[in-house]
TrEMBL record:
UniProt lineage: Bacteria, Pseudomonadati, Bacteroidota, Bacteroidia, Marinilabiliales
Keyword Oxidoreductase tagged: yes
Coiled-coil blocks: none
GO biological process, one term: small molecule metabolic process
Protein name: 2-oxoglutarate ferredoxin oxidoreductase subunit beta
Keywords, alphabetical: Oxidoreductase
Domain of life: Bacteria
InterPro entries linked: 2-oxoacid:Fd_oxidoreductase, THDP-binding, TPP_enzyme_TPP-bd
Organism field: Marinifilum flexuosum
UniProt domain Thiamine pyrophosphate enzyme TPP-binding: residue ranges: 70-222
One Pfam family from the record: TPP_enzyme_C
One Gene Ontology term of the molecular function aspect: oxidoreductase activity, acting on the aldehyde or oxo group of donors, iron-sulfur protein as acceptor
Length: 257
């Protein structure tokens, strides 16, 4: 057996251990090294392929770092105005109830300018999935303080650290929406280890399954990193997240009806 024949045998379909999902396009991602967005995109794409719903899924992209998400996932997309993704997803889901509609939003988009939209969509129990990426900072616009920025955290607009006496306290969005009667599944996950990614994938799949079963709104928060905004290396960012964000934003499922 030649070396070429042996290699071809190893990479044959029946011997494949892992294959990149076809839902994830081959475009080079624009995200910074260590950014959590790329991992989340990959997980969503894998779930869509495994559930065989690629032609039935519609994503609503936000304004923020992930505004170009439509360049990476080969599904139908709509682009919402800043913070308005839940409103657009509401209309889409109601007009096309057989579709799997999800929003993909950061903390500035969802918890600041879009706070009214997300709260009312959750309260109404719209049959959508909300993927909320919380990295405690505005990433795309230069690292400003976000509603989820931690107390004392240094940002471009809080150079001496967030002062809760003047700016209020970090908003715990998952805890807030879990109290609303329209939410059926509320969970907070992460994606910094292989084990965390598996849990995240299970949560995202459950969200889409809830859509299929017309159960109402699934809210999936992902605590992520922003190496550029935090001015840390990818490795340092993961450690900072574990030491500082996880205690305030504890991982786990808050609601599952």
């Amino acid at each position: 057996m030649t070396a070429t024949t042996e290699i071809n045998n190893i990479i044959s379909k029946e011997n494949l251990v892992y294959k990149k999902t076809d839902v994830l396009l081959d475009n080079e991602m624009h995200y910074c090294p260590g950014c959590t967005h790329g991992v989340i995109h990959k997980v969503i794409a894998e779930v869509i392929e495994e559930m065989d719903i690629q032609d039935k899924t519609i994503g609503v992209s936000p304004v923020g770092c992930s505004v170009l998400a439509y360049n990476y996932l080969d599904i139908d997309w709509q682009q919402a105005a800043h913070g308005r993704a839940p409103a657009l997803a509401t209309a889409t889901s109601r007009l096309m109830p057989d579709k799997y509609v999800f929003t993909y939003q950061g903390d500035g988009d969802l918890a600041s300018i879009g706070c009214a939209e997300i709260m009312h969509a959750c309260n109404r129990g719209e049959n959508i999935v909300v993927v909320f990426v919380n990295n405690a900072i505005y990433g795309m616009t230069g690292g400003q303080m976000a509603p989820t920025t931690l107390e004392g955290q240094v940002t471009a607009t809080s150079p001496y650290g967030r002062d809760c006496a003047t700016t209020g306290f970090p908003m715990k969005m998952s805890e807030m929406v879990s109290l609303l009667p329209g939410t059926r599944f509320v969970t907070r996950q992460s994606a910094e280890t292989a084990g965390a990614v598996r849990k995240l994938k299970k949560a995202i799949r459950k969200g889409f399954e809830n859509t299929r079963e017309k159960k109402g709104l699934s809210f999936i928060e992902i605590v992520g990193t922003c190496s550029s905004g935090w001015k840390l290396s990818p490795t340092q960012s993961n450690e900072w997240m574990k030491e500082n964000m996880f205690p305030y934003y504890p991982l786990g499922t808050l609601k599952d009806e």
